Amino acid sequence: MEVNNVELVMSAVSPTQYPTTGYPEIAFVGRSNVGKSSMTNVLINRKSYARTSSQPGKTQTLNFYQVEDQLYFVDVPGYGYAKVSKQEREKWGEMIETYLTQRETLRGVVSLVDARHEPTQDDVQMYQWLSYYDIPILILATKADKIVRGKWNKQESIIKKKLGFNKKDSFVMFSAQTKMGKDEIWKWIEDHAFGGDQDGI
Ligand SMILES: Nc1nc2c(ncn2[C@@H]2O[C@H](COP(=O)(O)OP(=O)(O)OP(=O)(O)O)[C@@H](O)[C@H]2O)c(=O)[nH]1
Ligand SMILES: [Mg+2]
Asked: What is the ipTM score, two decimals?
C-alpha cells in the first residue's frame, strides 16, 4: 500500500476511547525497545512519525494510527520492562487483554521479537496467548541487520522452536534499518485487513 496520510487519532487506555469508524485494525506487540515504533515508521515511509526512543517503556497507551481512510495500526505499549511497577504491569495487562480479546475490528497482530536472541518467556507467553484466542499472528524477527545473513535461517529455527510456532501463522525477518521485509509485512497486513475470507464468512 502506498501511504501518504497517517494520523495519530487516539491514545487510548479504555474501550470508550477506541475509534468508532470501524476500519480494520492491525496491532503491533512486543517487548519494550524491540522496535515497534521503528517498524511503524518504515511501513508508513516516515522517519520519526511514531516516536522511537532509547528509553524503553515510553509508550503507555494504545496508540491508534489511521492509515489513509482504510485501516488503523495500533501500537501497543511494550511488555517486559523491568523497571515498571507491579501495579503498572497489572494495569498494562488489563488494558491489553481487553483490547485484544474484545476488539471486533482487530484483524491480526504483528508480534515482534529480537532476531538476535531466543524469545523471552514474555514473548512465548504473548504468542501462546494470542494463539489461544485464535488471533492471526505475524512473527516479525526484527533488527536482522545486527546479525550476519548466514545466521538468519538458524535464528528463524531457534525462534520458532522456542515459541512453539504454528504453521498457520507467518514469519518474516525484518530490519528497520535496511527495510528488509517491508513488502512482506504489507502483504500480510493487506491480506488480513482486507482479505474477504474471515472465518469463512
Ligand atoms: N539496528 C537496528 N536498530 C533498531 C531496529 N529497530 C529498532 N531499532 C532501535 O531500537 C531502539 C528501540 O526502538 P523503538 O522502535 O523505539 O522500540 P519500541 O518497541 O517502539 O519501544 P517502546 O515504545 O518503548 O515499547 C531504538 O534505538 C531504535 O533505533 C532495527 O531494525 N535495526
Ligand atoms: Mg514505541
From this structure: 0.99
CATH of 6-194, one of 3.40.50.300, 3.40.50.720, 3.30.830.10, 3.30.559.10: 3.40.50.300
Cβ-Cβ contacts under 8 Å for 22 (sequence gap 6 or more): 105
Q: What is the tens place of the pLDDT at every residue in 184-194?
A: 999 999 999 99
List the one residue out of 59, 76, 68 whose CA is nearest residue 24: 68
pTM above 0.90, yes or no: yes
Q: Which residues line ligand 1 (CB under 6 A)?
A: 30, 32-38, 52-54, 56-59, 77-78, 142-143, 145-146, 175-177
DSSP state of 146: G
Name the β-bridge partners of 28: 75, 110
Helix (H) or strand (E) holding 43: helix 36-43
